[in-house]
Amino acid sequence: MGVTNLVNHNPPLLMSSKISTKKKKNLEAAVRKNATKKIDLTVNGILNLKDIITPKDNRIE
Question: Domains in the chain: how many in total?
Answer without folding.
Answer: 1
